[in-house]
Automatic annotation (TrEMBL):
Keywords: Membrane, Signal, Transmembrane, Transmembrane helix. It comes from the Bacteria. GO terms for biological process: carbohydrate metabolic process. The chain crosses the membrane at residues 731-751. Residues 785-803 have a biased composition (Basic and acidic residues). This is Glycoprotein. Residues 521-549, 762-803 are annotated as: Disordered. Pfam families: DUF6049 (PF19516). Residues 1-32 form the signal peptide. InterPro entries: DUF6049, Ig-like_fold. The keyword Lipoprotein does not apply. The keyword Manganese does not apply. It comes from Rhodococcus rhodnii LMG 5362.
């Protein structure tokens, strides 16, 4: 008993010492809740949910206040009352490696060992009730609790909430983590040696999920159809795309902060999705929004985004004319899937044409030869595809190559050691990219992020995720072991959900680096020029996650199935110089739909099933439309029995074309024995018209015969449904011809024989079996003498005359 009492007494003394000597020990707290990892977040926060609203200052500089203040709220999300709710602020050790920009946010709370005191928030928090809090700690203090920050760096902070749920004991019920970047400690000596500046390159993406309705062929008059009208909201004032463009507009040196913004503009390159640009251009005139994505040509309503699209596009033209622009692969297409399909036309749409589309719509000359895959990774096959498309540089996460090192450029090893077409990779930090991808209303974890630092983003507030991004962007300029010649490539995700304020905050943080001399601009063009000496070759090493995030095999197979059908149809369509509707223009939307079905957009968000459904619907609609196009060309059934006047009479058929463009067809005939149909060759059918086909035929049979007719392309692909024609000829066929010839020969023989006997004055033996009155020379048996009797009488008369 004495030993136990002594232990309790010692514990009380230690707690008292901790209270009067801050910084020497960690204040006590309740039993720890699960750590902030992907697995634990699925079970944490059963009672309370803590959310951070503001961090002031968001970036600590030499001119900042010396106190950090965090505000937020705690909400009871459980099924019972929670009592004695208290919060406090804690800090972990500063980040020393870029990977810690993510891994430090998954540490157990015990690693956040620099702490402040718990502050009571409320004695009782009922179900559904919430309370706001405000916590403040000085950066450093010799006499009071503080964050203990004395030098620049990026520091992980944690807000911890404890409480006692009904029917339970005191426990840590939730926490929220974020990064605090410190570019300079307030009051630091002005003669402190600055770190070497960072050569900084910034990509600024403008992209959106594909929104064109699938399965609609090209037209010169019909308005474009969209699946939804949310793009109009994004382009309008306060929308996502409006905010991303407005943030860049605010950096115009002529209207803002001069030299620093000039440096920001020099270091930044707009990365624009040509599919978004083409859609916005179409929205500047009348467009429709379909009621059902599964019926793209069905009921639709008028779109409302024309004014917003027109204004946004004009603003973009102005900005794009003042800075670097690079075209993204169309519709964030999965380059690995494209490489698997390996279709030259799709590859051209996705990789070759985007720069031309961007240049035409914006009236600029974009930077060529650079490809930025949406996944940030390349497979060897995809790298070969990129090479074949003429690109010399690809923008990749450093995790996409083995042993990337500090160099911003890596030479991708080709299929042979002496690859005549090398591909360089501009490498960006995956931790920075991951932090930027988590910003905004639709956070995502990129495919290139290693599994060890992947965790659920849903429980972090938008403010906390923005703090993480600011810390990641600034880390390279405040890292403790800053080497000379370092560089930073800042690459947000292509489909970035950052709002207007968040986008401005990111740009302002980079501008602050230029202002302080911690960074210098490095244009993208400088990184993509041929490096001398050439960087060492690296092998591609795409993370496994990039495979599972990619377009699934069944979608790739469905796309591959439709390509030859579209190509065959395109080869059959007729180019009319007098018509602006060409075969290419007519079928281009369908090929574009196949590229859009390979998009990686939204495959890494909170609900990847949306992308799966959209891809499947899109490729199915293309298949349905291609079926309808083939069925629009057909042979018209004559009906009834087709009777030929003779065995060589031609068949007359009608071929109809309901397409708005002419088509060349061939007649495919399936006929039984005895029917010989002559091939009429290729026949051109006019747009939305018909033509009579005169088909030479020879039929040696008088029976009713069934002949099947169908129209095909030159490659043998069938148009429409075949028809069956019942044919009957008035000819009796070969057997009848033989019988007729034999009968004729017999008749000639018998007639010749009779004439022969008559010429010789002999009776025909064939008449011997006849009765006298039936023999030739009698008519009805009376009054007619035979030839023999008549000849005898004449001889008697002649005798008498001579006498």
């Amino acid at each position: 008993m004495i030993g136990r009492a002594a232990a309790w007494a010692l514990l009380v003394v230690l707690v008292t010492c901790a209270a009067v000597a801050p910084g020497l020990a960690v204040p006590t707290e309740a039993t720890a809740a699960p750590s902030h990892t992907q697995s634990s977040q699925q079970t944490r926060s059963q009672f309370l949910r803590l959310s951070i609203d503001t961090v002031t200052p968001s970036i600590v500089t030499t001119g900042s206040e010396r106190t950090v203040t965090v505000t937020g709220s705690v909400r009871n999300i459980g099924d019972r009352v929670v009592e004695d709710v208290a919060v406090r602020l804690q800090r972990a050790a500063g980040v020393t490696e870029s990977s810690e920009l993510r891994s430090s946010l998954t540490l157990d709370q015990s690693s956040f060992d620099t702490v402040g005191l718990f502050e009571t928030l409320t004695d009782r928090l009922d179900r559904g009730q919430s309370e706001n809090f405000s916590l403040s700690l000085p950066l450093d203090s010799e006499t009071d609790y503080s964050l203990g920050i004395t030098e620049p760096g990026v520091y992980p902070l944690l807000v911890n909430v404890n409480g006692t749920p009904a029917y339970g004991g005191a426990a840590r019920l939730d926490d929220a983590r974020f990064l605090l970047p410190v570019t300079g400690v307030p009051g630091e000596r002005p003669d402190a040696a600055p770190a070497p500046p960072v050569a900084t390159t910034l990509l600024w993406p403008l992209a959106a999920p594909p929104s064109l309705a699938a399965g609609v062929p090209g037209s010169l008059t019909d308005p474009v159809r969209l699946l939804r009208d949310d793009l109009a909201d994004s382009l309008a004032d306060g929308g996502r795309l409006d905010g991303l463009l407005a943030a860049i507009e605010a950096t115009d040196p002529a209207r803002s902060r001069g030299a620093w913004d000039r440096q920001l503009r020099d270091s930044t390159c707009l990365a624009i999705d040509p599919d978004l640009l083409a859609t916005v251009e179409a929205m500047t005139t009348r467009y429709l929004v379909v009621d059902d994505a599964g019926e793209p040509d069905g009921a639709a309503t008028e779109g409302t985004g024309t004014p917003a699209a027109t204004e946004w596009l004009e603003r973009l033209r102005t900005v794009a004319g003042q800075m670097c622009v690079v075209a993204l692969p169309r519709a964030q297409a999965d380059l690995s899937a494209l490489a698997t399909i390996d279709d030259p036309t799709l590859t051209s749409i996705a990789l070759n044409e985007p720069a031309d589309v961007v240049d035409r719509i914006l009236g600029i000359t974009s930077q060529r030869g650079t490809t930025w895959p949406d996944s940030g990774t390349l497979t060897p096959a995809a790298a070969d595809l990129v090479r074949g498309a003429g690109a010399t540089t690809s923008l990749l996460a450093s995790t996409a190559v083995d042993t990337p090192g500090e160099a911003p450029i890596a030479r991708i090893a080709g299929p042979t050691p002496d690859d005549p077409e090398p591909l360089d990779a501009v490498l960006f930090d995956p931790a920075v990219g991951a932090a930027l991808a988590a910003v905004g209303s639709d956070p995502q974890t990129p495919s290139y992020v290693p599994s060890s630092v992947r965790y659920d983003l849903a429980s972090d507030s938008e403010t906390a995720r923005l703090q993480d991004a600011l810390g990641a962007v600034l880390w390279s300029s405040v890292r403790p072991d800053a080497p000379d010649g370092r560089s930073a490539v800042i690459a947000p995700p292509q489909l970035w959900s950052a709002g207007p304020d968040e986008a401005s905050a990111i740009l302002n943080s980079v501008t602050g680096l230029f202002r302080s001399g911690a960074a210098t601009p490095r244009p993208l063009a400088d990184l993509t020029r041929t490096q001398d000496p050439a960087p060492p070759p690296r092998a591609l090493s795409a993370p496994e996650q990039s495979v599972s995030d990619g377009v699934p095999e069944h979608v790739r197979a469905a796309v591959a199935d439709q390509l030859p059908r579209i190509d065959s149809l395109g080869a059959s369509l007729v180019t009319d110089p007098s018509s602006p509707l060409t075969p290419t223009l007519f079928l281009a939307p369908l090929r574009g739909d196949l590229v859009r079905s390979l998009t990686l957009a939204q495959r890494r968000g909170d609900d990847p099933s949306r992308a799966e459904t959209a891809a499947t619907t899109r490729v199915n609609e293309v298949a349905t439309t291609v079926d309808a196009l083939y069925n629009s060309v057909s042979v018209v059934s004559p009906g009834g029995v087709y009777t030929l006047a003779s065995e060589q009479s031609p068949l007359l058929l009608v071929a109809r074309n309901d397409l708005p463009i002419g088509v060349t067809v061939r007649l495919d005939v399936q006929a039984p024995d005895g029917v010989d149909i002559t091939d009429v060759g290729a026949t051109a059918l006019p747009p939305r018209g018909s033509r009579t086909l005169t088909v030479p035929a020879r039929i040696d049979d008088s029976r009713k015969l069934v002949v099947q007719f169908a129209l095909t392309s030159d490659e043998g692909r069938r148009f429409g449904e075949p028809i069956s024609v019942t044919v009957r000829s008035n000819a009796y066929g070969q057997a009848l011809a033989i019988v007729t010839a034999c009968a004729g020969a017999l008749l000639l023989f018998l007639a010749g024989r009779r004439l022969w006997h008559r010429f010789r004055g002999q009776p025909d033996p064939a008449d011997d079996a006849l009765a006298p009155d039936e023999r030739p020379g009698y008519e009805d048996g009376e009054g007619v003498t035979s030839d023999r009797e008549r000849d005898g009488d004449e001889r008697q008369d002649e005798g008498r005359g001579r006498t």
